[in-house]
Amino acid sequence: SVSIGVLAVQGDVREHLDTLRACGVHALPVRRPAELVQVDGLVLPGGESTTIDRLLRAFHLAEPLQERLAAGMPAYGSCAGMILLADRLVEAHAGQQTLGGLDMLVRRNAFGRQVDSFEADLDLADVLGGDHEPMRAVFIRAPWVEEVGDDVEVLASVEVDGVSRPVAVRQDHLLATSFHPEVTGDPRIHALFVRMVRQARDDA
Ligand code: GLN
Known about the structure:
This protein has helices at residues 13-22, 33-36, 49-58, 62-70, 80-85, 188-203; strands at 3-7, 26-30, 41-44, 75-78, 86-89, 102-107, 117-122, 135-140, 144-148, 153-160, 163-171, 174-177. Strands 2-1-3-4-12-11-10 form a seven-stranded mixed beta sheet. A three-stranded mixed beta sheet has the order 5-6-9. It is of the alpha/beta class. The two termini are 15 Å apart. The protein has one domain (3-203): Class I glutamine amidotransferase (GATase) domain (Rossmann fold). The longest helix has 16 residues, at 188-203. Glutamine (GLN) binds next to helix 5. Keywords: Glutamine amidotransferase, Hydrolase, Lyase, Pyridoxal phosphate, Transferase. Pathway: Cofactor biosynthesis; pyridoxal 5'-phosphate biosynthesis. Catalyzes the hydrolysis of glutamine to glutamate and ammonia as part of the biosynthesis of pyridoxal 5'-phosphate. The resulting ammonia molecule is channeled to the active site of PdxS. This is Pyridoxal 5'-phosphate synthase subunit PdxT.
């Protein structure tokens, strides 16, 4: 079986561990480089991306993590995790850096203060083997994707003021969603990520 880590410096770690375990994989929190080397894939949870960015550096995790990502370790970022996997941010907070990997421009807190949090039904059939069962997506001070490079596959979007904003994307071994699938009890995004991790391990 594969081992999947959940970055555990800040954010909603427990819910991701529970959902991964429900998918039948070994899941463990990752706070130190010694834990990072034990995992075949990593979930970057929601939380506060500026705080996670700061703690990654303080815990000496940023560099080993970037090396593993560059070497092809699969990663899934939700909300703040999506921000961390973006190559570029719109109006980055002073000094805020990202790990990068996904060729895209992301806007933090994009949906605006008046709609701090909301829910929407998404159709992810293209990546879920034709399964059109709507996915209830929970957005909490969520980012959206403003621009994607040619190699980024848009898996789902939400329409805002007539403009379609990507909220789920994939590029090679990296997956990201603006929303929080760990809070709804729908394991399909985690199951998709588990398939990506298994695939990467079989290919290695
Ligand atoms: N607004 C947060 C940030 O910019 C993300 C919110 C979340 O992860 N729920 O980091």
